[in-house]
Amino acid sequence: MPGYFPPPRPLQAVDCEPARALVWGVLGVTPYVDRIMELLEAASRGDPETRALVIERDATVVTLALFGPQPGTRDTWRLHGVLLAPHVDSRDLGGAMIDAVVRDAARAGGRLLVAELPADQALGRMLSLLRAMGFRQEARIPHFYREDVALLTLRRELAPPTD
Question: How confident is the model at residue 56 (pLDDT cuts 50, 70, 90)?
């Protein structure tokens, strides 16, 4: 990771407003903003089912990941989303964030990381990042969210932690 940004770290109270600004800046008035805001609020309250990691510098959150254990499953984790500010390099910061999520989930005993996301242009950068970071499409349900917007299920196997 370039030295300009520190590594990903857990969300802190001071990050909440800058993280909200990132969510609104990336998702705007799309149909997906409300759910991401709900998850961000849950993480900020310390909900054990929702974790948040950020990459931040000078009180600006440039990358946010929301994830947690998948209820009703064994050792499966769910990645709700990874948001990147438009001006940051998705390979460097996005890759570092995905690596941190994978490490956290594996350390917690996870064996599988799943992302269920709309196949929508609004999330194109996130979907491209996940595919570049080893997520493979498991399923596609056409017209799930609305006409011409499918539900994609992506998965990535997790190796046991080495450290």
Answer: very high
Domains of the chain: 9-157 (3.40.630.30)
Query: What is the per-residue pLDDT across 33-43, written as a single tens digit (0 to 9) for each?
Result: 999 999 999 99
Q: Which residues contact 71 (CB under 8 A, 6 or more apart)?
A: 49
Q: Which residues of 23-60 are buried (b: 16+ CB within 10 A; e: fewer)?
A: beebbeeeebeeebeebbebbbeeeeebbbbbbbeeee
pLDDT of residue 1: 46
Look at the pTM and tell me if it is higher than 0.70: yes
Angle at 7 between CA 77 and CA 162, to 5 degrees: 55
